[in-house]
Design goal:
The structure holds two protein chains of two kinds. Chain A folds into two domains: 191 residues, no CATH class; 193 residues, no CATH class. In chain A, 49% of the residues lie in helices and 15% in strands. Chain A has 17 helices and twelve strands. In chain A, the strands form two sheets. A six-stranded mixed β-barrel of chain A has the order 2-3-10-5-9-8, surrounded by four helices. Chain A has a two-stranded parallel ribbon with strand order 6-7. Chain A starts with a helix and ends in an 11-residue tail after the last helix. Chain B has seven helices and ten strands. Chain B starts with a strand and ends with a strand. Chain B has a single domain, classed as Rossmann fold (3-Layer(aba) Sandwich). By secondary structure, chain B is an alpha/beta fold. A six-stranded mixed sheet of chain B has the order 6-7-8-3-9-10, sandwiched between helices. A four-stranded antiparallel sheet of chain B has the order 2-1-4-5, covered by helices on one side. Classes of the chains: A alpha+beta, B alpha/beta. At the A-B interface, helix 1 and helix 14 of A face helix 1, helix 2 and helix 3 of B.
Chain lengths: 507, 228
């Protein structure tokens, strides 16, 4: 009580110095709170907009995959490797307590071969739509047309991809059976809507380095909009898994219906398969091509009934995993990789951050930059407070030495100094935290949005949504406590060196 | 009965490459209830001797006993507690705590003692503040008091714990002659009423007439002692 009384009165007496320390603590606390709020909002936003809408917590990829960045860095890169041993992987993932659910998909770049117009490309996410919607129930909304039906062939083109196609290739994609909606057209297209080239299907060919891809015609069933990070996820168009597999010449689920003889399996296992087709055109002999066979006939002939077989029998190149609430991603990641290694499975698990590549690194970078900024603020605060307190200690040597001389222990003086700083921290830092929380809520109310991709990383989405929880509050108080303690350490050393003799006049 | 016994006390201070011998071997015995004045010119070792007796400095050689307890080898915390319970200090420049008022300054050592009943603290403080003539200024802070009044507060603070010994280093050096006279009379009066041993250093001949025993130092040596 005595120490508190003296500490408080000293704060009041030395108002100038107290104010200097207080103002630094105040602004430090405001910046720290807002910074922590932005980081927390970014974490929450990223978690909601990336993990919960697109990647899941972990991604299983082929062990042969050179880089972990499989989702957003594939443009122009090599196609993703197919996961071997998927049945074993599936079995193991299904047995894991920490894993809530998993979604096998295919992802990659395909060329768009639309005849009369310039060719383009599209990022495709091949999914079983039923499982996809169960795994990511809120990820997409339909802007035009409808969703794919389970087992149905078709593609859901992102609104962004449609705009890009119009901008660079001059055609407007429209879902099957949909009338042109003028309101959805970009301004230049509205002016020329009468001559607007409409396309209701895409001819896609997988960008496969092995030249084994084929082109397939896929009807557009709907135009989708991703719920968040539209510019980032808008790169991806959702296609039914079997069409994707066909365009990459992957093994499809339907292929499981085909019984292959032992000799056939041996033949397919031969890595030099292309040599059997070398040296000529297999359709060169005129008599081999049946006259009067139209494209529609071929399509009808080759149309497959997509029921009665297991889609999982076909190829996948990614498995997205969602962990149960509280599931430790790092621990699960380690556990999965240990299992895969021990069982010689040709896969590895990576974090969602690694899976999204540059984007993930950028989020880590933004987060680090914010943290470094906060640490810098604290560092400056610590130095200034330390300096001011040390000066105060030196100015009060005689008074403090007298206290020691008449029986005060070192601990009493230290307590007095810690209390002075703690009171300032509590008052000014506390006020700073309260103001910081108010700023956070004002920022939320301000509805600040951005289309800039880098800023979206800072915001954790399109909208700046800083967030402050009790955990953040406790962390903030802890940070303030640490700053106070670090700032007072050197002054305490100065105080500890004051000896009773300093109170006496010396000869 | 002897309250202080000093034997062969020496004190050296390093000063650059040389050593200054502040005390060159002092032997001294002080009886309980003494009102002892240490006199001598500046640099004679008066303050050094007071510091060593008051346990705020340690001798280079020799021993100091307070109530038969050898104090030179005691650990720091024990010495701090010894100062709190057995020794009171009056400083030349008063050394009051500026943010505390008269009452709070006087009660400060009692609060350091802990477990002292509040009622006892209040009555003891009032008794002493009244004794030093400052009851009307009890709520005032040091900045609102004159030099003489501040020294009276310092005296009350030194006495509040009922110490065996009160050490005063040039207690009147910063006071005018009239105030000095009243301070010394007060100290003498308290010495008689409280039976507390007072040891004070001075080089003011006027002060000496209040002492009942005097020792004289010169160049770190005790060169004279006498009873008035």
């Amino acid at each position: 009580m005595l120490a508190v009384k003296i500490a408080w009165r000293n704060i009041c007496k030395h108002r100038g110095k107290s104010l200097v320390i207080g103002v630094i603590l105040f602004f430090g606390a405001v910046l720290m709170t807002v910074g922590n709020g932005i980081i927390a909002g970014m974490n929450r936003g990223l978690s909601e907009n990336i993990v919960k809408l697109f990647t899941g917590d972990l991604v299983v990829i082929s062990k042969q995959q050179e880089k972990d960045s499989v989702l957003l860095d594939v443009m122009g890169g090599k196609p993703l490797k197919v996961i071997k041993d998927y049945p074993q992987v599936k079995k193991y993932l299904g047995e894991q307590e920490l894993i809530k659910e998993f979604l096998p998909v295919t992802a990659g770049l395909a060329f768009v071969l639309n005849g009369e117009t310039e060719s383009g490309n599209k990022m495709l996410l091949g999914v079983d739509i039923k499982r996809y919607l169960r795994f990511f129930p809120d990820s997409i909304t339909i802007e035009e047309g409808r969703l794919l039906q389970p087992g149905e062939r078709g593609i859901l083109v992102s609104a962004q991809a449609r705009r890009q196609d119009y901008k660079f290739r001059g055609y407007w994609l429209l879902p099957e059976g949909e009338e042109l909606d003028q309101k959805k057209l970009p301004l230049p297209a509205k002016e020329q809507s009468a001559e607007l080239l409409i396309k209701r299907e895409l001819v896609l060919m997988g960008a496969d380095a092995a030249d084994s891809a084929v082109d397939i015609r896929v009807p557009i069933k709907g135009i989708i909009e991703y719920r968040a990070l539209k510019k980032v996820w808008g790169l991806y168009n959702i296609i039914d898994i079997e069409s994707y597999r066909e365009t990459y010449s992957y093994v499809t689920g339907a292929d499981s219906l085909v019984e292959i003889s032992r000799e056939g399996k041996d033949l397919l296992a031969n890595e030099q398969l292309d040599q059997y087709f070398a040296g000529g055109n297999m359709f060169a002999e005129p008599g081999l091509i049946e006259e009067g066979f139209t494209l529609e006939d071929i399509q009808q002939e080759t149309k497959k009934e997509i029921t009665g077989y297991d889609l999982d029998a076909g190829a996948y190149n990614l498995v997205l995993l969602k962990l149960k609430d509280g599931g430790a991603a790092q621990v699960t990641l380690q556990k999965l990789n240990d299992f895969f290694r021990e069982n010689r499975l040709e896969v590895r698990a990576v974090s969602w951050k690694d899976a999204i590549g540059t984007l993930g690194s950028m989020t880590a970078l933004v987060k680090t930059a914010l943290n470094v900024f906060i640490i810098f603020i604290f560092f400056v605060a610590i130095i200034v407070i330390m300096n001011t307190l040390s000066m105060t200690a030196l100015e009060r040597v005689s008074e403090l030495a007298m206290m020691r001389a008449i029986g005060a222990r070192k601990g009493f003086l230290r307590r007095m100094f810690i209390l002075e700083t703690a009171i300032l921290s509590f008052l000014f830092g506390g006020l700073g935290i309260i103001i910081g929380i108010a700023v956070i809520y004002l920022l939320r109310l301000a509805n600040i949005t951005t289309t800039n991709e880098i800023l979206q990383m800072v915001y954790g989405g399109e909208k700046l949504s800083p967030f402050y929880s009790w955990a953040d509050f406790r962390f903030g108080v802890l940070q303030l406590g640490v700053v106070t303690l670090l700032a007072v350490l050197y002054p305490l050393r100065v105080v500890g060196k004051i000896i009773p003799l300093d109170a006496m006049s010396r000869e | 009965m002897n309250v202080i016994e000093v034997k062969g006390v020496k004190k050296d201070y390093p000063l650059g490459k040389t050593t200054v011998q502040a005390l060159k071997g002092i032997d001294l015995v002080v009886e309980t209830g003494a009102f002892l004045s240490i006199v001598g010119p500046s640099g004679s070792g008066k303050t050094t001797l007071l510091n060593i007796i008051g346990c705020i400095d340690t001798p280079t050689a020799g021993t100091v006993k307070i109530q038969d307890e050898e104090i030179t080898a005691l650990p720091e915390q024990t010495i701090t507690d010894l100062r709190l319970h057995k020794i009171g200090f009056i400083f030349q420049n008063f050394n009051l705590i500026p943010v505390l008022n008269v009452r709070e300054n006087v009660e400060f050592p009692l609060l350091l003692m802990k477990n002292q009943p509040r009622a006892l603290i209040d009555s003891r403080v009032k008794e002493l503040v009244r004794g030093v003539g400052l009851i009307d200024q009890i709520e005032q802070r040091p900045a609102e008091l004159s030099g003489g009044q501040r020294q009276r507060v310092a005296i009350a603070r030194a006495l509040v714990t009922n110490p065996e010994i009160i050490l005063a280093d040039e207690p009147t050096a910063n006071l005018d002659s009239e105030t000095s006279e009243s301070i010394l009379q007060l100290m003498r009066q308290l010495n008689q009423s409280e039976k507390t041993t007072f040891i004070f250093s001075t080089h003011d001949p006027e002060v000496l007439k209040h002492a009942n025993s005097i020792i004289q130092l010169r160049d770190g040596l005790l060169v004279g002692a006498g009873v008035v």
